[in-house]
Amino acid sequence: MTFQQPKINTSPHVSDEVRKTTCYMCACRCGINVHMKDGKVAYIEGNRDHPVNQGVLCAKGSAGIMQVNAPSRLRKPLKRVGERGSGEFQEIEWDEALQIATDWLAPIRKDDPSKLAFFTGRDQSQSFTSFFAQNFGTPNYAAHGGFCSVNMAAAGIYTMGGAFWEFGQPDWDHTKLFMLFGVAEDHDSNPIKMGIGKIKARGARVIGVNPIRTGYNAVADDWVGITPGTDGLFILSLVHCLMKAGKIDVNYLAQFTNAPCLINGDEKSPEHGLLLRDDDGKELVIDRATGKLTPFDQKGVKPDLTATHRHAGISHRTVMQHMAERYLSNEYAPEAVADRVGISAKRIRTLAAEIARVAFEEAFELDQEWTDFRGETHKTMQGRPVSFHSMRGISAHANGFQTCRALHVLQILLGTVEVPGGFRFKPPYPKPATAHPKPHSGTTPDKPLDGPHLGFVHGPDDLALKEDGTPARIDKAFSWENPMSAHGLMHMVISNAYAGDPYKIDTLFMYMANMSWNSSMNTRGVIDMLTDKDENGDYVIPRLIYSDAYSSEMVAYADLVLPDTTYLERHDCISLLDRPICEADAAADAIRWPVIEPDRDVRGFQSVLCELGAKLGLPGFTNEDGSQKYADYGDYIVNHERKPGIGPLAGFRGDGNDTGRGDVNPDQLDRYIENGGFFVEHIPDEALYYKPWNSAYQDWAVGMGLFDSPQPYLFTLYVEPMRRFQLAAEGHGDRQPPDHLRERIKATMDPLPIWYDPSPDNHGDQYPITALTQRPMAMYHSWGSQNAWLRQLHGHNPLYLPTKLMRENGLSDGDWAKVTSPHGEITVPVLEMAALNENTVWTWNAIGKRKGAWALDENAPEATKGFLLNHLIHELLPPKGDGLRWANSDPITGQAAWFDLKVRIEKAPVPAESQPAMGPIKSPVGKGPKQLAWKVGK
Amino acid sequence: MTTLPQSTDRKLGLVIDLDTCVGCHACVISCKGWNTENYGAPLSDTDAYGADPSGTFLNRVHSFEVQPEQGEAQLIHFPKSCLHCEDAPCVTVCPTGASYKRVEDGIVLVNESDCIGCGLCAWACPYGAREMDQVERVMKKCTLCVDRIYNENLPEEDREPACVRTCPAGARHFGDFADPESNVSKLTAERGGMDLMPEQGTKPVNKYLPPRPKDTLSEGAGDIDILAPYLEPVAQEATGFLGWLDKTLEKL
User: Fold this and answer.
1) Which residue in B163, B132, B140 sits closest to B25, CA to CA?
2) Is the pLDDT of residue A201 over 80?
3) Residue A296: which CATH number?
């Protein structure tokens, strides 16, 4: 019988309309095309014109449709009617919700604004939420950076004026060696994948340094399965090898870094270890041409890297000399570090040699003239095609800041930052620490705060301390315990508020922060702190307001719940005032806009703050007649001005043709929507590289409103502010640290990168195995692991054990193990993985869910087999016997040291479910449907 | 029993680069989204928020650990969907003619209105590339986005399968293997593109590019000492190093 092929329609109707907005399934902020049918979301794909993702889209992005229809979406404001944690709520109207919030917050503001702690989690509107907090007058504001990657960000800003991800990216088109440290997946998820694809397509090399060979390490050409927490030592050994072989960019170091700057060598001087400066505070160098002392930035100056200089009877030697003495020492020789880092000396040398080969043998020049800040014109742009990327893996250790510093210093020694083939900044970066605000914590009843909360300290004078020397902030950010805590310490807020240390608060107000579950160390303890009552029967933390779009684990612990919209139902701006979507070649920002209207009684959180701010009479939120200034967040985005002519969005200002600076344009949002939801302004060719020192770039940045005047600067291999804290600890100056912190400050705040071992503080001798987490690519930085499609990819999370530990403990796949840390124990299913450091175990983070949360069935595998490592991690280190509370954080920035977790493992009888099993919480939204067959255009 | 065409005018299919696939599942979910809304019945999910969620997917990514004889274990991500075989056993086994291979481009499709949900084709497919939709009770499989690649309602640049359009790493390529000058034919030739399980005699159209050799900078990976000259010391300690620095600066 001859088969008659059916005729099919190969050109079916695709959609009625495509609405272009910005994804919010994670922090990557890709452009998306939302295909609409009958007014409903039919399909989501990447926007080809968008600078971030150029058309591609990850699993999360495509699964956005299941986020917008998720049964876990909150429906209406909720007032708690049962005990905290019971999940007993009453649905209320918005008027009542806003009145409750106002009645709680207005008296606080009148008496003592610091009684409000306002912390936002995966917030992408920090320039707005901080504006609210600043207007309210509380010093207690931050987002989630303190428990994420502040070490990387702060180390980068202090060292070179920016770090990775939002600050910069590898030069994907020219790099020939790309080295990743501790990254299986990252915030910049699609750009990294696109970049690795480009590198692979031209056969260039990718090296992955990671205890676990997953994600990007799986496709890396070479995998270095390092011992967790030793990256800094490994990097400094690479530095040792490269310096010893002279494989450093001497010209770059002399011209663009503080390597030639002169350090005071008089141990008795109150300025010992500080840099020699002129009366204007400008760093001085010895000019090789004249042999004279001169400010670094003068025309024709050739800074000398090896000079010594006697000034006022004090010997000064260059930063470079100090670095040579430290890093040429055999202390950093591969043979000396090999055992600790778990990489053979020969392999360390091979890796260093390959870096040297590519940086210097494969160096190239781009035929592009440019002029530096000294007025010298260079005929070409020198390229060094080695690039690096790193984020949380090396950040989330107690030695993370110094490790991140070491990596930035390595890049600078190679001369590969802001050059072709290397690492490139994205506007508004580069921006050195000196160009950022300092932290502000000055409170006055009934008045705004005296300045922005977060910033960069340059010495003890900039700490956020009260007159009695105690921390001004509830999270103790910018205190002697962690002086450079540029992103705050969200992970300490609840435990400090509960302990009343440094003081008690009245209302805790949080947004998108799952603190009673996966976003806290010591989950059980945090739940107890949220529910514990004092002798009067009142909650120790008296009031808790929470905003979220979904029925997360945190909702049950709130007294008042303000339901947020999903990302397709709201206005947002991805602003140059905040964390924009720029690329190395261009400045860019973007919006979200309501491509659908909510079908529930919910409101965008930022719009709620516009109304709440007005009800509280906050000056930034009210007109002179006391009326509400911004009708909603969209209105704020268009009409707010930080400085005259500079607002949240840089594009289509004035009559629609002004960029960066310009009057308010009432049609601005429409222009963004017409343009695909974003705006891009390209950087001129002569300004594309060498940005910190490139006059053309500096002028362009001023024109865009990124700076008010050109701000060329030197990269700081030697970070002088750290030395100022050491000086205080040595007894110099009026502002003195508490005695118990002196030795730690002296030891850790070294102005040149060092490495120290965090494992003794975590009882590494008794708990010899490191336990880590990763998030899977399909859920990284996502608020949607309950997503109907994504949960089929990762619905539960075994603990992966290396072959050696499986054999030693008599374990087979499917067995269960008890995992014990100095703080607690869990019992969980195990699975063998060979491509894993032999003393490391790991699992996927945030798969485990509390029963009753996220509209999942109570028997969902996320709740029965899934688990959190958080139960094993405490916000404080195990007691040292000195009677003091030592935070499980980096002593410099306060970054949560998640990855210092040390454990023991033993085989366990199979329990009914993962332990500890916590009781269910009552769902405020019911349960999801049994079955989905989602076709909107039927 | 359904007959296969003697030959097809074109051989459309995919090249999947196993050296580059990072295992992110972007292709899996993009496919799920497009094919839920488009060709035939939606790809359903049963027990979607429950204890045993199970949905229909036309494309899945499997991850395998590989332990080479020498050196470190490796992790390979392996995306798998219908390979649109030239000798497709799923077609010849179909009792109703619902499964067929298109004569113009070689795409293997299921005509859902003729599918009785018997499942013989899924048994016959050695790759496990077909899935029975548990709600609609029809057989679902990769259509190579036949409703995208010719779709005049889409911009020309978007007329490619959803999985290819979305792949962030650029590990998926779409084209005509009958044309030796096509991107997919050239990539297959350059990179040693392979058939999946050729011993099955199915003559798959889709090709896989194998992972490149790994860990060439590790001990035991051959002659890595050729790199040693790059670390030839300029000095043993700080004083000598500063002398070298001086000389180097002098030359600039």
Assistant:
1) B163
2) yes
3) 3.40.228.10
Neighbours of B71 (CB within 10 A): 16
- Long-range contacts from A640-647, C-beta under 8 angstroms, 24+ separation: A640/A131, A642/A577, A643/A705, A645/A705, A646/A577, A646/A705
Q: How far is A98 from chain B (nearest CA, A)?
A: 33
What confidence category does residue A584 fall into, taking pLDDT thresholds of 50, 70 and 90?
very high
A790 with A689, same domain?
Answer: no
Given a cut of 60, is residue A35 above it in pLDDT?
yes
Are residues A789 and B146, on separate chains, in Cβ contact within 8 Å? no
Q: Are A416 and A355 in contact (CB under 8 A)?
A: no
Query: Do A704 and A822 fall into the same domain?
Result: no
Q: How many Cβ pairs closer than 8 A exist between chain A and B? A: 315
Average pLDDT (A544-559) is: 97
ipTM here = 0.97
Domain that holds residue B95: 12-209
Distance separating alpha carbons of residues A734 and A532, to the nearest angstrom: 40
Q: Give the chain A residue nearest B135 (alpha carbons).
A: A933
Average pLDDT over residues A456-473: 97
Q: Are residues A697 and A586 in the same domain?
A: yes
Cβ pair A250:B23 closer than 8 A: no
Kindly determine whether residue B38 and residue A12, on different chains, have CB atoms separated by under 8 Å: yes
Q: Locate tokens 């050409």: which residue?
A: A221
pLDDT the model gives residue B224? 62
pTM of the shown model:
0.97
Backbone CA torsion sign across B168, B171, B172, B177: positive
A922 occurs within a structural domain: no
Domain count, chain A: 3
Which of B16, B75, B251 should we substitute to test contact with A (largest number of A Cβ atoms within 10 Å)?
B75
- Tally the domains of chain B: 1
Residues B130 and B90 sit within 8 Å (Cβ to Cβ): yes
> Which of B21, B165, B249 lies closest to A250 in CB terms?
B249
Alpha helices in A467-560 (DSSP H): 490-499, 523-531
Supply the angle between the helices A345-356 and A334-341 in degrees, to the nearest 10: 110
A186 three-class SS: coil
**CATH number, position B168:** 3.30.70.20
Candidates A91, A84, A83, A85; CA nearest to A562 is A91
What's the average model confidence in pLDDT over A308-323?
A: 96
Do A181 and A323 share a domain, yes or no? Answer: yes
Task: Tell me whether residue A459 is in a domain.
Answer: no
